[in-house]
Specification:
about 240 residues; alpha/beta; Rossmann fold; 9 helices; 7 strands; binds S-adenosylmethionine
């Protein structure tokens, strides 16, 4: 996959603060209805990095979950619909994906999702310790080449932040269909002292956790005969 780089505004966000995001921020021109959702709904649902996560939800949830790179938002909308008592923060710089999530939010009348429409790395450091019940990183960009390893989302600094933010016994759910990405995801999380891989048998990484729904990337992987796996980690105590 060839991606333009440098200072192209389609690839660098308004808050980038020197962090380079290597994915796409824009895709096809949005239909009027989708642009209307972005203009009308996003400002009211945007995650505020200056405020504590819990105060951003009207129901002060005990459990808050973060999905990093929610793509079209299929999973985020489904888990949020299944847990109206909880709060969900989704981070996704790809604006067409954000518009797609907003459509799910409208269609299902969801009120427990806040959206960070930029690079997740910009909000992690500002979040308080142990504020999350769990996090999802589903089908991250695989960056299989060794020379692109620094672009992988589960870099040590991000995993350290997730270890700080996920409370003891909270969950970190990872998924991939890409052989190289499966191995770097597993290696990163297994070698982190604060996370424990909960799998006991192959079925535990072969079967999609019941609460999650197939995402766009998962469906594409299955159409193209790639095998998705799910890796469930628990944040250790202490
Ligand atoms: C391969 S897609 C998977 C999307 C979705 N999880 C799914 O399963 O359909 C990876 C997503 O991660 C997003 N992403 C990459 N780097 C990110 C970052 N630093 N912060 C937030 N999202 C990121 C990309 O924009 C892209 O939408």
């Amino acid at each position: 996959m060839t991606r333009p780089e440098g200072n192209d505004p389609d690839f660098q966000g308004p808050h980038s603060r020197g962090l380079h995001f290597y994915g796409r921020r824009k895709g096809r021109k949005l239909r009027t209805t989708m642009q209307g959702l972005l203009d009308g709904r996003l400002p009211t649902l945007r995650y505020d990095p200056a405020a504590a996560p819990v105060v951003q939800f009207s129901h002060s949830p005990d459990d808050i979950f973060l999905e990093i790179g929610f793509g079209g938002g299929e999973n985020l909308a489904a888990v949020a619909a299944a847990r109206p008592d909880a709060g969900f923060i989704g981070a996704e710089p790809f604006i067409n994906g954000v518009a797609s999530l907003l459509r799910h939010i409208e269609d299902q009348a969801l009120s427990n999702i806040r959206i960070w429409d930029d690079d997740v790395r910009l909000i992690l450091a500002g979040m308080p310790e142990a504020c999350l019940a769990g996090a999802y990183v589903l089908f991250p960009d695989p960056w299989p080449k060794r020379r692109h390893a620094a672009r992988r989302i589960l870099a040590p600094a991000v995993l350290d932040e997730l270890a700080r933010l996920i409370r003891p016994e909270g969950s970190l759910v990872l998924a991939s269909d890409h052989p190289v990405a499966k191995s770097w995801l597993l290696q990163a999380a297994c070698s982190h002292p604060d996370f424990r891989w909960t799998a006991r048998r192959p079925a535990d990484w072969r079967a999609r956790p019941q609460a999650l729904v197939p995402t766009r990337y998962m469906k594409k992987a299955e159409r193209e005969s790639r095998i998705p796996n799910w890796f469930l980690f628990e944040r250790k105590r202490g």
